[in-house]
Amino acid sequence: MITKILGKIGLPIIVKYLGKALGALNNDSARQAGILLGDVDSAIQSRQISLEELKEANRHLEKTQELENELDDKTLSTLHETIRQEMGATDKFVRFWRPAFGYSVAIAWLMNMFTICWVILSENPKAPEIITALVETTSLWAIALGVLGVSVVKSGSEKINRTVIK
């Protein structure tokens, strides 16, 4: 995502505003990063970093973005081809395993959420332990959603922006 922003806006602008934003935070590491980015901005302004070097950095970012987009395209085309083959199959199991699995995952998730709500509302003394135990199932949910082809890593706005950009 950051490469897309840098490729569209440009490195000097990002360095300038990110440095200011980090410098205003109440954290030593963030302030140090802000100071260093301010130094980079000063170097850009005083032409210590040449225009050719900035163009090369932006070109590199654009190339990185292009490679990421190609990987996303290949992944999506593979997923779409798999689903097309499943939908065209004559065997009912092959055609309907994904929706059946999806519904069972949704029902299991709802049962978990109702359990958490019931535990909290009933003021169960073991509520923290139960909630902690359910949090431990995060990797299990990630695998189940991954089987369904749902990406749990990227936010919805990034997916929308990716489809609009293409």
Largest sheet: none
The portion of residues forming beta strands comes to under 5%
Radius of gyration: 24 Å
* Bulk shape: flat
Which oligomeric form is depicted? single chain
What is the succession of H and E elements?
HHHHHHHH
Mean pLDDT across the residues is 79
Number of domains: 2
End-to-end separation? 14 Å
- Given the structure, what is the number of helices? 8
Number of distinct beta strands = 0
Query: What structural class do you assign from the helix and strand content?
Result: mainly alpha
Helical percentage: over 70%
Low-confidence parts:
none
Secondary-structure map:
Layout: H1 2-9, H2 11-23, H3 28-45, H4 51-88, H5 92-121, H6 127-135, H7 138-148, H8 156-165
Helix pairs in contact: 1-4, 2-3, 5-6, 5-7
Structure description:
This protein is mainly alpha-helical. It has two domains: 1-88, no CATH class; 91-166, no CATH class. Helices cover 83% and strands 0% of the residues. The chain contains eight helices and no strands. The chain has helices at 2-9, 11-23, 28-45, 51-88, 92-121, 127-135, 138-148, 156-165. Helix 2 packs antiparallel against helix 3 (28-45), helix 5 (92-121) runs antiparallel to helix 6 (127-135) and helix 5 runs antiparallel to helix 7. The relative contact order is 0.07.
